[in-house]
Design brief:
This protein has 14 helices and 15 strands. The chain is of the alpha/beta class and about 500 residues long. The protein folds into 2 domains: about 5-205 and about 370-495, Alpha/Beta hydrolase fold, catalytic domain (Rossmann fold); about 205-365, no CATH class. Strands 1-2-3-5-4-6-7-10-11 form a 9-stranded mixed sheet, with helices on both faces. A hairpin with a 5-residue loop joins strand 8 (about 290-295) and strand 9 (about 300). It is globular.
Length: about 500
């Protein structure tokens, strides 16, 4: 795909841009014969105001026995000549119309897949175990990378049959599991996409080790867990100590790594109440901020960033509906169903010196983790990778994405012109938090791939708020110029902090 000349791409785009495709071409797609693929349905879908009129194609892809990949292709009447792959989250793909709406509105033919299994919940990992209680190997391979690749290959063929010409460009956009899917495409199938947006990618075993150990450290003993009312207490103390360090008191730590606030400031003389922390609770918070290292120096749990405490209740402290927090629903099933293959595995017994090698080995390492920094084929083919991560993410750590970015630069020097990382201060996992979390990465990627203009910054805004900030290419971060409205991104510049 990337071998097409710029002149040919321009010609193809000119032919299709703004040209309506006859919608009576949709029905015949049901008769398509494609390798390992059954077209389940093909029907026109009228505009509902949120999405334009389009042809909706459902397909089942079965490359081997035991694999059944559900794919949905949405083909707009007004096509921009390009395809857009859309990622999932948790243990699930995303085949919803809502997920395709932005791409369809832009004129993209949208490619979606269920990662090899239908899912009632993104937290359901039961697909990884078969009816006999054994690993569902083919289902895990689909989840790891095969479903996304084959749905993409077939999707391009469906688009070509519908529009009468091959797509000129292909882009991928996803966050969390969708970010990992994007990295799998870059690392394993470098010809699938011309440009990839990978947000907060769960590409490493440390993500699942993080989840288990963070729940352990909060719930090791009844007295070690925090109460929900402690969270604003801790956050307010962090902000009082560090918020002004970046020049603006706005509830956002531009670089939380520079904040060294010690929770001992909140320690009680006796047992903990709502307005202070016990000694055991102080130890929990310190442990959360420092992380857990193994004897060889590697992190088994990355440090949580100060300033991101607002998500601790849902993630680790727990709620009445989920006493151990969402992290327990992410790390534990991955370890039990995929890494260990034992439904009875108790993640509270996870011990990294003994068990991290299991998490980082076997089928998990071979098929699911996407840690290879040698992306030379993707870079040499002209591909562009836009990484981004919320700097206060309590799930996959932004430090892991920084580590991957630096590993790519070391392994592939030419990637300096093909890979960018943007950190979003104050943002949690894929969205939320005090920081601005809405930005147009796709337009930036298009400009980079199609016109050679690498993104110097991304303008980030926040719903129902005047707040805006530039997101900067790492290692640069936004810096207040010292004058003007601190809510206005125009009064910030991208600057590299001192080492």
């Amino acid at each position: 795909m990337r071998a097409l000349s710029s002149q040919l791409i321009a010609a193809v785009a000119g032919l299709v841009s703004g040209a309506a495709v006859a919608q009576d071409a949709c029905g015949p797609l049901a008769q398509l014969e494609l390798e390992s693929t059954t077209i389940v349905s093909a029907a026109n879908t009228a505009s509902d105001g949120a999405t334009p009129a389009h042809c909706e194609v459902h397909a089942a892809i079965s490359p081997v026995a035991g694999s059944k990949i559900g794919a949905v292709y949405r083909l707009p009447a007004e096509w921009n000549g390009k395809v857009l792959g859309v990622g999932g989250g948790g243990f699930a793909g995303n085949v919803s119309t809502e997920a395709a709406a932005d791409g369809l509105t832009r004129g993209y033919a949208v490619i979606q897949n269920d990662m090899g299994h239908p899912s009632a919940s993104a937290l359901d990992a039961s697909f990884a175990v078969d009816a006999a209680g054994k690993r569902n190997v083919e289902g895990i391979v689909d989840f790891g990378h095969r479903a996304t690749h084959l749905a993409t290959v077939i999707g391009k063929q469906v688009a070509e049959r519908f529009y009468g010409r091959a797509p000129a460009r292909a882009y991928w956009q996803g966050c969390s599991t969708g970010g990992r899917q994007g990295l799998a495409e870059v690392q394993r199938y470098p010809d699938d996409y011309d440009g990839v947006i990978a947000g907060a990618p769960v590409y490493t075993p440390v993500t699942y080790s993080n989840a288990m150990l963070r729940v352990q450290m909060f719930h090791a003993r009844p007295e070690s867990n925090l109460r929900p009312e402690h969270v604003p207490l801790i956050r307010e103390a962090v902000l009082a100590a560090c918020d002004k360090d970046d020049g603006v008191a706005d509830g956002i730590l531009t670089d939380p790594r520079t904040c060294s606030w010690d929770p001992a400031e909140l320690q009680c003389a006796a047992s903990s109440g709502a307005a202070c922390l016990s000694a055991a609770q102080v130890d929990t918070v310190r442990h959360a901020y420092s992380g857990t290292r193994m004897r060889d120096g590697r992190f088994a749990a990355m440090p949580l960033m100060r300033g991101g405490e607002s998500d601790w209740v849902a993630r680790m402290i727990g709620t009445p509906n989920q006493p151990r927090g969402v992290n327990a629903l992410l790390g534990a099933p991955f370890m039990a169903y995929i890494a260990v293959g034992d439904l009875k595995y108790d993640f509270m017994t996870y011990e990294p010196e003994r068990d991290f090698r299991v998490l980082d080995g076997g089928i998990a390492a071979a098929e699911v983790h996407q840690q290879n920094p040698n992306i030379a084929p993707f870079v040499q083919g002209g591909g562009k990778l836009l990484l981004w991560h919320g700097f206060n993410d309590p799930g996959p750590s932004p430090l892991s994405t920084i580590a991957y970015y630096e590993a790519v630069l070391a392994a592939v020097p030419a990637s300096r012109d093909a890979v960018r990382l943007f950190l979003a201060p104050g943002v949690l996992h894929c969205a939320g938090g005090a920081g601005p979390d809405r930005f147009d990465a796709l337009t930036a990627l298009e400009s980079w791939v199609e016109r050679g203009v690498a993104p110097a910054s991304l303008l980030a805004t926040k719903r129902d708020s005047p707040l805006s900030r530039p997101l900067c290419p790492y290692p640069a971060l936004p810096r207040y110029r010292g004058a003007g409205d601190p809510n206005d991104a125009a009064n910030f510049e991208c600057a590299t902090p001192p080492p």
